[in-house]
Amino acid sequence: MMIVVFQNIIAYSINMADNLMLGMYSQSSLSGVATVNQIQFLLQQMTLAIGDTLVIIASQYWGQKKTKPIRTFTGIALATGLILGLIVFILTTLFPREILMLFTKKESYIIQGMDYLSLIRFTYPLFVLSTILMAALRSVETVSIALKVSILSLIVDISINYTLIFGKFGFPEMGTKGAAVGTLIARILELVIVVIYLIFADHKLKLFAKIFSTLQKRHFPAFFKILWPSFLSNTLWALATPIQTGILSRLSADAIAANSVSTTMFQYLKVITIGEASASAVLIGTTIGENKGTTKVKEYSKTLQVIYLIIGSVLGISLIFPKDSIVISL
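The chain above was modelled as a monomer; its predicted structure follows.
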């Protein structure tokens, strides 16, 4: 479970690294990028719903050691995710200013946001595909590769950010656009490594062996029946944060910056809970697939509830005392 949680935190940190490093560059850059990253957060939540649906279904087949249906449902998830990523890409390409004006009316923030969005929009389909592929691996209890890839991507992103945002080592000072370059390269690297791993190193899924050959109409209703409640819930929940940002943007620049800090902390905590839930889905799904009975499922569920209560309490308490230091550091 902890590997999944850490992987989610690190994956989310790739975009948050842009916020934090641009905060040292200028407030306009920070606020512009923080505004754009509301789109990333919304896309992330919708993508996680697709990935979690895949995990719920695929882990049950993994419990039965049946990989053919897993490849089938992974194909459906990838097709669904790609459509989603392309829709967001097209909307941010055609209406970048209109979308950013939903969150802020300040022209300097919109200009910085559009500079960032002009490149970062290319990461949306890449992010969706890599996230779903990692979910497929997670459903067959292969989790270490996702963590390693996310760590490498974060290191690459931070290194390029430092070089291009501030113009170090003889490179031009690109500011906001430099942060976008770093994230784009990190996302490309992330997807390439995962695909290479699936082709040459994975011996469980054999994902690219006839992935779409078994697709039938009956598979789609089964997938979307589980997907739509989670997708709707995640989307509505994710919309709350951009709406709050849009409201606060009518107040002042300081309100936007303060909201960016608090939102960052909230989203990190949410990512932790999402990682816990995803790990639980694998455990429960595999148990069901192995036909261990409802008694074992209930036993695991009660244990997980206690673990999550403890983790939630520790996280809540840990934010009370160092809150001033956290705000200052962000």
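The chain has a mean pLDDT of 81.
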